[in-house]
Amino acid sequence: MALRIAVPSNCDSGLDGPISEHFGHTPCFVLIDIEGDAIKDVKVIRNPHYLEHRPGVVPEFLAEKGVNLIICRGMGWRAQNIFQQYGIKVITGAEGRIRDAIRAYLEGRLVSREYKPARRWHEERFKPW
Fold it and tell me: Is 60 helix (H, G, I), strand (E, B) or coil?
């Protein structure tokens, strides 16, 4: 069975870009399709809910895209519960390049851990796409 992973991104560099710190307000997601232990496809998609952040809209959006797993830095419990309702697993606490997090996941080394952002999302200046 194929697996589709979504990782929040700043829209730069695909797999070589960093994992975006703020999940709900990320401008893009990198979608990675996995078959067995291999990456089969990679797409960068825009987050249409980037500037508006209503509870549940991002989980619904990613569920519609066929996502099975989210790998991110931080995410609130409310959002994690909504993803769980869609049958989407969440791994938090991932940092660094997206490619490295995917490799760690495929090798069984990526485990969920708590992550607290350095500052709140509204303190960061976002560039419109």
Answer: helix
